[in-house]
Amino acid sequence: MTITKLSGRFRRTFLVAALTVCGLAGAGSLLAGGDEEAIIAGTKKYLASEAYTAPVKIAVEKVEGGYARVLVTPRDGQTDAATVFLKREEGAWRGLTIGTGWDPEDLAKLHIPAGLRP
């Protein structure tokens, strides 16, 4: 059945519902984008606190619950890319650790979710 064959009242209800779903999906994307920006800002703050000043490319790889995994790639190519794990605390993302290799026990002690572990 096409939308043109539906009764007027049902058609309006269907269109309102469809537009609402599309709007909610768009809002979710906007929220995700804002969260990604906050994660990147938290990563930059963490890198600065670790005296890491080289220009880098920051890519949010995965977010699970209140934790995030971020790939930090030096733009000069002089060092290897590193992974930063962050935790959301009181609405802000705080860096937990940075490195290129991980002991699963160390990540477990930091409560990093299994789905984020490399």
| Total individual domains | 1
**Looking at the chains present, what oligomeric state does this protein adopt?**
single chain
* Rg calc: 21 Å
Q: Look at the helices and sheets and give the structural class.
A: alpha+beta
Relative helix content: 40-55%
Tally of helical segments: 2
| Average predicted confidence as pLDDT | 80
Strand percentage, roughly? 25-35%
Order the strands across the largest sheet as they lie in space: 1-2-3-4
Overall 3D shape: globular
Can you summarize the main beta sheet?
A: 4 strands, antiparallel
> Could you give the count of β-strands?
4
Enumerate the spans where pLDDT stays under 50 for 5 or more consecutive residues.
1-6, 9-32
Distance between the termini: 48 Å
Order of helices and strands: HEEEEH
Plain-language structure description:
With 118 residues, this protein is α+β, with helices and mostly antiparallel strands. It has one domain (7-116). 41% of the residues lie in helices and 28% in strands. It has 2 helices and 4 strands, in the order H-E-E-E-E-H. The protein has a 4-stranded antiparallel beta sheet with strand order 1-2-3-4, with helices on one face. A hairpin with a 2-residue loop joins strand 1 and strand 2. It is globular and about 30 Å long. Mean pLDDT is 80; it is low at 1-6 and 9-32.
Kindly summarize this structure in a few lines.
The protein is of the alpha+beta class and 118 residues long.
